[in-house]
């Protein structure tokens, strides 16, 4: 095992790990940083060709880009915020659970088609989920 050292620069360590692993494969072990260096840890058996890939990957690395999992996490957080905002601006905000249930039951009774049901559920289900999450106790 050996370390290849680079001057510290902004990186998205998760994305850089993915990029290096994709290029080098099994000979790539990991990345670490300190106050002044980026350490790329590789196996001793790394080929010259694989080692020559590391510097260009680091120089072209976009520290603001996200991995798929990071983007999904941001999207999920944004969706939670958007649903909570919709809940707060909806007619459900000041209703008790019994009133919400009664309103939903009345709405269901008026459905004449599956299409109407789907339309209502696209509105109601996220709001009900947000209401449940909103009412859960927060552990501080």
Describe this structure in words.
With 140 residues, the chain is α+β, with helices and mostly antiparallel strands. The protein has two domains: 59 residues, Alpha-Beta Plaits (2-Layer Sandwich), CATH 3.30.70; 67 residues, no CATH class. 59% of the residues lie in helices and 13% in strands. It is built from five helices and three strands; from the N terminus they run βαββαααα. Helix 1 runs antiparallel to helix 2 and helix 3 packs across helix 5. The mean pLDDT is 86.
Shape: elongated
Report the total helices: 5
| Strand order of the biggest β-sheet | 1-3-2
Radius of gyration, rounded?
25 Å
Helix and strand sequence? EHEEHHHH
Number of DSSP strands? 3
Distance between the ends:
42 Å
Task: Please state roughly what percent of the residues sit in beta strands, choosing from under 5%, 5-15%, 15-25%, 25-35%, 35-45% or over 45%.
Answer: 5-15%
Instruction: Tell me the domain tally.
Output: 2
Percent helix among the residues? 55-70%
Oligomer: single chain
Structural class: alpha+beta
The major β-sheet equals: 3 strands, antiparallel
Overall pLDDT level = 86
Q: Segments where pLDDT lies below 50 for 5+ residues?
A: none
